[in-house]
Amino acid sequence: MRNSVITDPFVPDMTKRIPHTSICHNLLIFPIFFFIHRRFIETALALLLIWSPSISAFALAKPPPKADISLFPLVTKGLEQPVFVTHSGDQGQRLFIVEQAGRIRILEKGRLLPTPFLDITDRINFGGEQGLLGLAFHPKFSNNGRFFVNYSRAADGATVISEFQVSDTINLAKPAEKILLTISQPYGNHNGGMIAFGPDGFLYMATGDGGAGEDPGNRGQNQTELLGKILRIDIDHGAPYFIPQDNPFATQQHGQEIFAFGFRNPWRFSFDQMTGELWAADVGHYRWEEIDRVEKGKNYGWRIMEGMHCFKPSTDCPQVGLTLPIAEYAHESGRCSITGGYVYRGQQIPHLQGTYIFGDYCSGEVMGLVNNRVTVFLSTGLRIASFGEDATGELYVVDHGGGVYRITGPPAAKLGQAQSSHRKSELPNTTHGSEERDLFK
Ligand SMILES: [Ca+2]
User: Fold this and answer.
1) Integer Cα distance of 391 and 299 in angstroms
2) What is the 155 CA–ligand 1 centroid distance (Å)?
3) 47 in a structural domain
4) Ligand 1: distance of its center to the CA of 286 in Å?
């Protein structure tokens, strides 16, 4: 019963026909649906930008990047479509980088190790929004060697949550897996992908609404199925897992794993290291990208609403019982797909302390939520597939094109006091003119 399998018929993955991959946005999945898309021209433009790496998304006459933060390249060669970076919590200096095709690579002392920590490419359906999408180390990994992944199954694209174990060689995992949970996927897109342990020790997982466009099965609102949700299970008890007693639908026959619902494609979420709060970024349809503070049992609105706006129905939608995002931004200036990040709790960039950092896959901007206002911190030109956090709270940017960067303070800080103080006038929580691009509505 726990090992929930949803039996919707599988439809072949249309995303595989797309020559360039995007893990987190419908734009690359939907050339087929363009005939119903009233924003065809904008979308085509965004696609053109994505498909042409030589064309900067910032050819669109953008103001120069601000210098509140900068990126330090850790690795820019030898990675194939990385989608995540994390640490193992065992006091080591290693970073673990997830390659979408099905490998976990180790970056140790600035060097990308040639042998993957794990290679399960033969078990994975890779392409479009499918692949190896998430990785979470057990909070007691240093003692028990357990870690967990989220991938699209080779045979049919179903989502698999699976457990692995490190081998006697610390930089190598055993290939054997224990499958915890399998969720059938009706379409190739909107697979969610994030998995992470909460401060309660439970494993949280994000699922998308199953794909196609406009959630045709209304799965986000269906409280008896696992798509369009954030799920929560106890992997320290039970076989293969237990349902936490206070899960909102724990007494139902189906949907016991649900923690919160009403999501479209919450590709990345995270827990604030200090407060334990759960932050999710739900990738929008064609108009609005949103940030949610996720709490147990709440309904985050999709497909009734996209962001703070009625979606289906498009006017006078019933909003009672829905939890609206705490921030949103529109598809403009090349923005089209939010990539959720982390509340900064590191020590190296004091002015970022407590700020939720996130980005946009299409525009390449690193943004922050300052007083609940979306503020652009840095224009990178990267395809920001994910952020990552290390054990000390420092943050990383993952470029889907093949790089991992550490977020650092303003470069002016290294160049002398005069420039440094000049830069301070551009701190994100100061008031700026119209060029500030405050995106919060
Ligand atoms: Ca929502």
Assistant:
1) 31
2) 31
3) yes
4) 13
In the reported structure, the alpha carbon of residue 255 is separated from the centroid of ligand 1 by a whole-number distance in angstroms of: 19
CA of 267 to the centre of ligand 1 (A): 13
In a domain, 5, yes or no: no
C-beta separation of 197 from 232 below 8 A: no
Whether residue 48 is contained in a domain is answered as yes
- Distance of CA 261 from the midpoint of ligand 1 (Å): 9
Q: Look-up: residue for tokens 């439809």? A: 11
pLDDT tier at 412 (50, 70, 90 boundaries)? low
pTM of the prediction? 0.82
Cβ neighbours of residue 143 closer than 8 Å, sequence gap 6 or more: none
Q: How far is the CA of 371 from the centre of ligand 1 (A)?
A: 20
Q: Are 385 and 339 in contact (CB under 8 A)?
A: yes
Cα of 414 from ligand 1 centre, angstroms: 41
Structure tokens at 255: 């949907």
Assess if residue 187 is contained within a domain.
Answer: yes
Question: Ligand 1: distance of its center to the CA of 256 in Å?
Answer: 21
Say whether the peptide bond before residue 313 is cis (omega within 30 degrees of 0): yes
- pLDDT for residue 414 is more than 90: no
What does the pLDDT look like over 105-114, one tens digit per residue? 999 999 999 9
CATH value at residue 49: 2.120.10.30
- Tell me the CA–centroid distance for residue 224 and ligand 1, in Å: 19
Domain that holds residue 147: 14-436
Alpha carbons 279 and 356: distance in angstroms, whole number? 8
pLDDT digits (tens, 9 = 90+) for 25-75: 443 333 333 333 333 333 333 333 333 332 223 323 333 344 489 999 999
CA 207–ligand 1 middle distance (angstroms): 14
Q: In what order do the strands lie in the sheet with 132-137?
A: 132-137, 146-152, 159-165, 178-183
Tally of domains in the chain: 1
